[in-house]
Automatic annotation (TrEMBL):
Keyword Amino-acid biosynthesis appears in the UniProt entry: no
Record carries keyword Membrane: no
Record's protein name: NmrA family protein
Limits of the NmrA-like domain: 2-231
Amino acid sequence: MAKTLLITAASGTVGTHLVDRLLAAGHSVKAASRTVKHGASGHVKFDFADPSTFEEAIATVDAAYIVVPTGTTDLGPVAAFIDLAATKGVKVVLQTAIGVDASDDIPYRQLELRVENSGARYVLLRPNWFFDNFHTFWLQGIRTHDLIALPAGDARTTFIDARDIADAASAALVGNQFDGQAITLTGADSLSYQEAADVISRLRNRTVRYEAVDTEGFTAYAQKTGLSATHAQFLAPVFYPVAQGWVGADNGEVARMTGKPPRRFVDYFSDYAARFR
């Protein structure tokens, strides 16, 4: 049965793919974002920083996909929107990040607890680091300096493609078999950043180096390559579990949710190769 679904950050890395998948499956989508073209069909203006946009966004929807905007430090408005969704009887699919369950003091974990205690039907999705970071956040450093400089040490990560997250989110939104679960999403390839750089070098036919830096070095370099100071400072400590080797295993959850294995790194790069030239 077709559903009406709210997708926050609809123009974002995951949201763009998720909207496409849901529409293709015949569902009605409210694509929510801060900027909406006047009269755009299926789109709704939405901003966590503007509570006046909440009611229109949540009205008449069966389920909502909620993702915290990148670099957001004040999660109070997100919590308020979760509470509103619960009072409206809307199912909540919340995307946080791998490892947030390490401590209830972690802000993203506090959001998860808000969902769990809200009375709403819910699914929590905790994706690993995105493949897509290579053609977004790290791209300028690759193209300008042939360098990836991160505080990740030599540990491995099972990077995940945003398209696989979208597939999993679609399954969570339209079905009920995953309700009440907190699911960590990983990719299939367990790679160090040096190994990822080697793959990029081979397919790009130009050497890309990886340099393991400390948090201060990362913050300084990231700002030189396009990240804001706030975003760089937000990301730096998030690399701690990466450097500790805690995010390098494939748990098979993407296949369980979607019925197909996650994309491989070489396939991701082939699809986005033009971005790296």
